[in-house]
Fold this sequence. Notes:
The chain is α/β, with parallel strands linked by helices. The chain is about 30% helix and about 20% strand.
Amino acid sequence: MHVLVIGGSGRTGSLVINEILERGQSVTALIRDPTALPQKRPGLTIVQGTPTSTSDVETAFAAIPNGVPSAVIVTLNARRESDSPFAKPVSPPRFMADCNANVRSVMQQHGVRKLVVMSAYGTADSLPELNWLMRLVLRRTNMVYQYIDHDAVDEETKASGLDYVLVRPSMLAEGEAKPVTEWGDQGRGVPMLAKITRASVARFLVDAAGTSRWDGQTPVITN
Length: 223
């Protein structure tokens, strides 16, 4: 399996690349700053560019040995100045939505069907399943801009006709990969302040890319 990773220099995306390579598979990563990733790793091809540019996404496809990836994994996030929910947004509105739209467009041109996107618990129809305090944090602080973007990605990906998996992790934490618990598409019953390590998410994303088990689903996951 050869995977194209969008967002591979991020905290979760870099772990996705590691997971793919550790499985003996190959990966192409579209990276704005190639120095953000270790160079010359067997099985890794780095393409400099940004998913805000459709032509850069095309260049990444062209760099893939057989011309098309088996799957695309997107781990983009709308950045804020810090992890504080009150921090000022840095990414423009629709950053994730527009990048995903560019990726889907190129996928469709090349006949690539499998798309795995890292979304978030609290997106779209999973929002009502959050406790009231978390709903307040996500929708009444500067995190709202990130979740508006997530909602757009969710709606537009579902309408794309692709074999998508929109993975909705709970609160992200650092640490090694641990067993994952799935809570359905909406996350009913997820404990308050449930967390999941980025390494666990990375492993799940790669698992989802290699099977049809979760196609057309929005699994909420925790440790």
